[in-house]
Amino acid sequence: MSEHTLQALLARMRDKPVTLGWGAIAAFGRDRINHLLRHQYVSGLSDFRLMPPFSGTVSLTDEQSMLATFRNLTFGAPQISFEPAALPMARVRLSVGVIGGSFSLVQNLMDSMPRLLTCFDFSEADGFTLAMDLDLSTLVGDVDHRGRFVLDLEKGEKPLCNVLVEERAQKTMGALLLDFIKGQPRSRRIFEMGLMDLNGYNPLSPREFHVYTQPAPGSTDGDGALLLFTRLKGIDSNGGEPAHNDDFPYLIPSDMSKGGEPLYNASLVLNAELREWVGERPLEMIERLGFPARNLFSETADGRHEPHDLLVLGNIQPAQQSAVIEPLLGAVKPGQERQFRVRAADGSLVTDVQWSTRSLGSPISAGSISSSGLYTAPAEKRMGQDSVPAVVTAKYRIDGQPHESSAMVLGRFELMSVQPRAQSLLSGREPVDIHVSSQSGGELEWTLLAPGIGSLQVQGPGHAVYTPPDKVDTLINVQKIQCRDKLSGETIESTMIVLGGSPGALVEPVYVPSVARGQTASFSTDIEAQYQRWSVIGEGSVDAQGVFTPPDQATSVISLVLCQLVYDDRVLATGYAVVQLSARKELPPWSQLETFKIRAPNNLTRAYANGYQQIPLVVEVETTTVDFDGEKYEVPLDDAEVASIRLVDMYTGDDIGFLADEQEGIEHGSGQVSFTHKYANRFALFPATAAGPLQRQPVPVPRNGKTRYRELYLHTTVRDTEKFFVRFTDKFGGIWESTDKGVEDTSIELTGVPPPFVDPVVGPGHDFDIVRDRVWQGPPGGDDPGSDDDFTYYMDSLDYWYINYQSLGRPVPFATLQIEENCSTMQWESEQMAETFFSYTGYAFYPYPFSGYDEPPPRLSFDTYFQRLGREALGTPIREEFEGDFTPSPGQLLVSNHRVADMRYWYDDMAEGDPNKRFREKLDKPVIFVLLDVYGNRHRLAVGYESPTEEDSRNTLVLKIQ
Predict the structure, then answer these.
(1) What superkingdom does the record give (predicted)?
(2) pTM recorded for the entire structure
């Protein structure tokens, strides 16, 4: 690998800029991004974001002679690599692991009978993937104004599935799987790699970013970095594109610790023009970066270097107030135990954890978990599938704040896997590679079982080669190869079906991928009934009608069902089919509904029609009890069915669409529309009483094992009453609607209420008021005034002006803030060239806290253009730290007015054509604040000074409602 050490990087950066005119460039390494993607995949399991299993068949040839079939294929976590990366692009190679399900390949030639070529089951250790190239995307939330860099699988191109070796087959299977993924809801195919808060207005605040990808120098394994070329407020324009990989330095040094671990997985380069804004505290851009699983960019000790631009080295790592479940992923056999723990970022174990678990397959297949985190997999008789995923959830507190983490556990009948499980081949043909993986990692022992036809050579760990004999005496021969894990004692078999020629009869289906205990499988043949003779090679039995019955307790996995054409006691032709036996017991699906209702908790059926305030809705679906095999089962809707529940317009029959996960509401100006959301947002519910808004109610605890609930949240800008019902899609594609279950609570009327009128007059007793507090003043400019005059005798002072809002007689705090242009305004006492008496403003906003979010402002903020002007013309430092205990309360906007006597006069002709010095053009106008209050209602306010022609106008601030 080419050297890209820290010293090499510093040498390349020395005495010349590398930021290409951007304010900053951040770089993040592959391995840490992939770690975060795994965490995000697991966290989605508890949130209805798991990709459902895929089943389907595709022809690998134009003449339909080779059919590949996937059954219950389960996708794992996405992982990225940088093979296709090249500046100036944002392309990565995305690989989605295949961790469950099965595969079969059937040959169907014109001149011979169809036959199974190969079949096997998937496990995570096998390394099978769906790979694709895609360009990274960016999304910006309209309320939280956070930019997200994401993987959107819908943008995938050039898909390849490596289940088979041939490139054409890989392309065909890849296209099949990618088409399935593209048809999934948006929340299932988008993975977030990180976010950047774009709300700041200081010189080092990020305003916009562009994503690029760069391969690591000399990498042969797809290593590389994700780059964020970022516009900062201090250089308020975009820079240029990197021309080529060789023209741009790789910004993550390859230096290793003494233990052989990389010292850095992230870095940031700040444009040298902005170094004057850097203090001792962390860079604001670093503070505004966030990553999944509560990870942050953390500077390393002595990580700052100044070869020209400022280089900051660090790592993406968990925040101090975070924890994860260990293990994150695992597999267990029926009835087996697995211990889970919650580990904090400092390495200590978290105590007082509330544990729960839920099956993501059949709800009957749920395991159990103790109060200490000891998980027990379901018993064999309750394993309704060969592989059953389950989510383990931990709820706990760190520093008094509630947290939740998830892990995934797969219930399997076997913890070993083999490819192929079965394969048919002609004698004298090419050898067959056999691959085995084992979870324990123990030494593997291979055995060629009786009758011992052919030969077996062990090639290495988990790899052996079977060579068929040159000739066999019979048409159909079965040879099993056993592999034993010496550590766990578990064994697994691969079955070779060695043919002495081509079968002359047809038995269909050619392959049955799974027959559970208690099930049967029916076969047909092209042989006339009076000449049929059915038999079995292996375990199980078949009757004269071709109905196969598996054994009560199978000791092997593969059986062959044969049908022979017998005439005058002579066998004239033989056909066969392959059956895969399963230890599972087929569990019953639900078939009917007892209850399907929708209701609004606390009968709250109104919201302001502002697009942001929500009406919470709870959907209840209860199935009927199922009788099966002499037992009664409570079988509720599975997760995929619950996830398909959606709101429907009663009059049009159209589904109400879902907002994107990152959207908190319907953007202002979108017209008369309604949407639903999967999540509660920050805004308070409708103030139904004089006492204020109602509290959100928790989802009811299911009263039995047949009941599932789902919360939906309606957003509307329609100022009227609308009627809705709910529907969902079952696992077989059937549509169920609440209105089919009678009239009580099967539909609901919801009303969008016009936002309250706002009094345009500002002052005491009106809806809006602006209140001044003197927080600091210099010495009097003459004799002590001895009066209430705060201005005449004080040349230097600082006032905080608090903006207060009330509606219907109650104070209403603010939830969000956006500033349209300048975030400071200013005014001189007069327009005389010698004038130095001057006033300017800053601001601080404390967003009203909501669940998991409480971010008081650390200090006052000022417009970047004013800070530049102040450096040139202001004689005293800007007072940006809060004065004493004077700070905004939660939900309050504070605007500061700073009066000074030592500001040199400026007019824009002094800029000499420099657009970045036209300070009067930028800052003479009022500041426009756009606020959403806690109910989601929008307020556009202007704060500034009265006309300078009015005496003492710079002493006070004026609030105007726009």
Answers:
(1) Bacteria
(2) 0.87
The span from the CA of 907 to the CA of 833, in Å, is 9
Instruction: Please identify every stretch of the chain with a pLDDT value under 50, giving residue numbers as ranges.
Output: 1
Cβ neighbours around 711 below 10 Å, total: 18
Please return the burial class of 354, using the count of CB atoms within 10 Å of its CB with bins 0-12, 13-18 and 19+: exposed
- Report whether 108 contacts 57 (CB < 8 A): no
Q: For residues 340 and 392, give the distance between their C-alpha atoms in angstroms, rounded to a whole number.
A: 9
Look-up of token digits 């592989």? 387
The answer to whether the CB of 288 falls within 8 A of the CB of 197 is yes
- Where does 461-510 show beta strands of DSSP type E? 463-467, 476-485, 491-499, 507-508
Q: Do the domains 323-412 and 513-587 sit in the same CATH topology, yes or no?
A: yes
Residues 213 and 226 sit within 8 Å (Cβ to Cβ): yes
* DSSP tag of 435: E
Strands 129-135 and 115-121: unpaired
Residue identified by tokens 């969902």 is 728
Q: Find the helix or strand (DSSP H, E) in which 31 lies.
A: helix 30-43
The residue ranges of DSSP E strands in 820-857, in sequence order, are 826-828, 838-846
Question: Which tokens in the block code for residue 310?
Answer: 């400022």
Q: Which of 72, 127, 124 is nearest to 102 (CA)?
A: 72
As its CATH architecture, domain 323-412 has Sandwich (2.60)
Kindly list the distances between the CA atom of residue 759 and the CA atoms of 753, 762, 961, in Å, as whole numbers in the listed order.
Answer: 18, 8, 9
Q: How far is it, in rounded angstroms, from Cα 367 to Cα 333?
A: 11
Q: Sign of the C-alpha dihedral, residues 607, 612, 613, 615?
A: positive
227 backbone dihedrals φ, ψ, rounded to 5°: -115, 135
CA–CA distance, 267 with 259 (Å, rounded to integer): 21
Give the position of tokens 């870095």.
267
pLDDT at 356: 94
CA-CA distance, 105 to 161, in Å (whole number)?
14
Q: Work out whether the CA dihedral 467, 471, 473, 476 comes out positive or negative.
A: positive
pLDDT at 257: 93
Predicted pLDDT at 621: 97
* Residue 131 CA: distances (Å) to CA of 39, 52, 190, 213, 241: 20, 18, 16, 17, 28
Cis, bond preceding 754 (omega within 30 deg of 0)? no
**Length of the chain, in residues:** 962
- In the three-class reduction of DSSP (H, G, I as helix; E, B as strand; rest coil), residue 801 is classed as strand
Fold (CATH) for 513-587: Immunoglobulin-like (2.60.40)
Which is it for the CA torsion 863, 869, 874, 876, positive or negative?
positive
Cα(498)–Cα(508) distance, integer angstroms: 19
What tokens were used for 325? 């479940």
Domain layout of the chain by residue ranges: 6-318, 323-412, 513-587, 593-753, 768-961
Separation of alpha carbons 584 and 929, rounded Å: 63
Strands lying side by side in the sheet with 570-585? 511-517, 570-585, 558-567, 532-537
Distances from the Cα of 586 to the Cαs of 72, 194, 389, in angstroms?
15, 42, 16
In order of 85, 212, 225, 476, 494, the CA distances from 245 in angstroms are 9, 11, 11, 58, 47
723: tokens are: 């009627």
Nearest alpha carbon to residue 75 among 50, 55, 44, 98: 98
The 10 Å CB-count burial string (b at 16+, else e) for 849-873 is: eeeeeeeeeeebbbbbbbbbbbeeb
Give Cβ neighbours of residue 211 (< 8 Å, ≥ 6 apart).
Answer: 90, 136, 137, 138, 149, 226, 227, 228, 229
* CA 481/CA 406 separation, integer angstroms: 39
* Cα separation, 40 vs 193, whole angstroms: 9
Residues paired with 22 in a beta bridge: none
Instruction: Supply the pLDDT for residue 1.
Output: 44
End-to-end CA, the chain: 61
In this structure, what token pair is assigned to residue 467?
């060579």
Q: Which candidate, 282, 310, 321, 274, places its Cα nearest to that of 298? A: 282
DSSP 3-state helix, strand, coil percentages of the chain (rounded to 5)? 10, 45, 45
Return the number of other C-beta atoms located less than 10 Å from residue 400's C-beta.
Answer: 6
